[in-house]
């Protein structure tokens, strides 16, 4: 079942096989590598249905050849290609992988080689937005990475999330990453979604990648010539600090990273970011390398932490009364939203933020209100602050995507929703709006993408 799992994730296989449909019957035959049964079913079809056989989807975007390739069911592969004349470059238009990408992501070397021998294009971008080399890099299938490169795969082919190098870095596969670098993959290539490969490797720690694996990838990239001060979207040092990666910070400083380059969102140096999170150990690492900040009167580790804490502190009022007031304003705001009085709710949340400007929930709630009343740019700003306050909270990315959708910035909305889905892969609400934004982006592209956002 291991090889098959890549094509069947999130689906109840037994339920599909038991539904009695033509598609389920073909799926079962492919799984069993049962060519006689396939021939029997094909011969029972009329000419019209037989002509559509190659286009039949038997499992969520996958046709028979994609499934057979994913499982390395070679009898079925040979029957489909050599007897029925299936095009080895089919697939992708259904929103699923090509046969070659299906083999690559599953690590099925034999079927991948067979498809290449029969004319599969290693550089075809499929319906998932990736080429086969991305698929192999994703799961660290090193033998197939080498095979594809030897058969003409473009090492820096661009997909929806960047190059295969970005994919290998994102999924923490240093072996595949090294092979790509040995074949002269660009360590400084910039993806509009993921930034540089170094930023991608560091950023992926928020999705569960261990710091040690991330650091291994970073070291390989730096050795290959990656720019440790490339600010795309932020410098590696800024990204590492945001995620509290002490070992990565130490290595980057040793490799020449400049700690005096601020983040793009709020203009904060890595030192200030560390202090804002109360990470004294990180402040101590960064302090000797950072130039004094004029606004910090007491230039010391403790002085920096105290200064940053004061910027996110509640005004000096009796704490219980202040917190009660904030809770009351939140409650009033929630009730106003239920009444669809978004303008009134936004004012209530603004009043609460005057008492506590570090509450991510308040920014999230006000962002919702701003979208509803047409102040989309303000909604986007609030969403960004929400993410800065709580980087691992999916709601902030949902709000950011909604703001971009309101601004007709559908590509940016897709990126925001994807970031949210990485944090919570099973979030049905995020999945729904992601597909909506993807459809909107496709329409933009079809119309030449010239619409301008207005509030």
Terminal CA distance: 52 Å
Query: What is the CATH top level name of the domain at 1-154?
Result: Mainly Alpha
Share in helix: 55-70%
Give a count of the beta strands, DSSP E runs of length 2 or more. Answer: 0
Q: How do the SSEs run, as a string of H and E? A: HHHHHHHHHHHHHHHHHHHHHHHHHHH
CATH topology of the domain at 1-154: Serine Threonine Protein Phosphatase 5, Tetratricopeptide repeat
Low-pLDDT stretches are 1-18, 314-319, 448-455
Q: Multimeric state of these chains?
A: single chain
The radius of gyration computed from the alpha-carbon positions, rounded to a whole number of angstroms, is 26 Å
> CATH-wise, what's the superfamily of the domain at 1-154?
Ankyrin repeat-containing domain
What do these coordinates show?
There is one protein chain. With 455 residues, the chain is an all-alpha fold. Among the domains are: 1-154, Serine Threonine Protein Phosphatase 5, Tetratricopeptide repeat (Alpha Horseshoe); 319-446, Tetratricopeptide repeat domain (Serine Threonine Protein Phosphatase 5, Tetratricopeptide repeat), CATH 1.25.40. Helix content is 59%, strand content 0%. The longest helix has 20 residues, at 319-338. It starts with a helix and ends in a 9-residue tail after the last helix. ANK repeats lie at residues 95-127, 128-160, 160-192, 232-264.
Topology summary:
Blueprint: H1 5-8, H2 13-17, H3 22-31, H4 35-43, H5 47-51, H6 64-71, H7 74-83, H8 99-106, H9 109-117, H10 132-138, H11 142-150, H12 164-170, H13 174-182, H14 197-203, H15 211-223, H16 236-242, H17 246-254, H18 270-276, H19 280-286, H20 301-311, H21 319-338, H22 342-355, H23 360-372, H24 376-389, H25 394-406, H26 410-423, H27 428-446
Helix pairs in contact: 3-6, 6-7, 6-8, 8-9, 8-10, 9-11, 10-11, 10-12, 12-13, 12-14, 13-15, 14-15, 16-17, 16-18, 17-19, 18-19, 18-20, 21-22, 22-23, 23-24, 23-25, 24-25, 25-26, 26-27
């Amino acid at each position: 079942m291991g090889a098959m799992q890549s094509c069947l994730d999130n689906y109840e296989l037994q339920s599909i096989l038991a539904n009695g449909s033509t598609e389920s019957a073909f799926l079962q035959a492919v799984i069993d590598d049962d060519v006689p049964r396939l021939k029997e079913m094909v011969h029972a079809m009329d000419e019209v249905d037989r002509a559509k056989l190659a286009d039949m989807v038997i499992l969520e975007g996958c046709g028979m050849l994609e499934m057979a390739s994913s499982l390395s069911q070679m009898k079925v592969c040979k029957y489909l290609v050599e007897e029925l004349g299936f095009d080895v470059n089919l697939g992708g238009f259904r929103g699923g992988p090509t046969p070659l990408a299906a083999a690559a992501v599953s690590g099925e070397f034999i079927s991948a080689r067979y498809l290449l021998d029969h004319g599969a294009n290693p550089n075809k971008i499929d319906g998932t937005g990736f080429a086969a080399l991305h698929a192999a890099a994703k799961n660290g299938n090193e033998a197939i990475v080498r095979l594809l490169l030897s058969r003409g795969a473009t090492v820096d082919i661009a997909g929806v999330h960047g190059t295969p190098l970005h994919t290998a870095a994102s999924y923490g596969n240093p072996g595949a990453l090294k092979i790509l670098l040995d074949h002269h993959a660009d360590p400084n290539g910039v993806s509009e979604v993921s930034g540089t490969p170094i930023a991608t490797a560091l950023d992926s720690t928020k999705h569960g990648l261990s710091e040690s694996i991330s650091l291994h990838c970073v070291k390989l990239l730096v050795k290959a010539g990656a720019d440790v001060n490339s600010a795309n979207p932020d410098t590696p040092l800024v990204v590492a600090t945001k995620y509290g990666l002490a070992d990565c910070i130490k290595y980057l400083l040793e490799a020449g990273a400049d700690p005096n380059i601020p983040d793009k969102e709020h203009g904060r140096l890595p030192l200030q970011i560390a202090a804002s999170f109360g990470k004294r150990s990180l402040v101590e690492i960064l302090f000797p390398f950072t130039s004094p900040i004029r606004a910090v009167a007491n230039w010391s580790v403790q002085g920096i932490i105290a200064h940053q804490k004061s910027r996110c502190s509640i005004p000096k009022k009796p704490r219980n009364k202040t917190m009660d007031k904030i809770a009351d304003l939140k409650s009033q705001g929630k009730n106003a939203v239920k009444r669809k009085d978004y303008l009134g709710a936004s004012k209530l949340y603004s009043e609460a933020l005057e008492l506590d400007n570090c509450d991510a929930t308040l920014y999230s709630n006000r962002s919702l209100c701003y979208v509803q009343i047409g102040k989309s740019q303000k909604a986007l700003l609030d969403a960004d602050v929400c993410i800065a306050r709580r980087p691992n909270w999916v709601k902030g990315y949902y709000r950011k995507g909604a703001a971009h959708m309101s601004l007709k910035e559908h590509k940016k909305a897709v990126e925001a929703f994807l970031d949210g889905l990485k944090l919570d892969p099973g979030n049905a609400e995020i999945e729904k709006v992601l597909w909506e934004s993807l459809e909107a982006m496709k329409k933009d592209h079809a119309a030449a993408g010239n619409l301008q956002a207005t509030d």
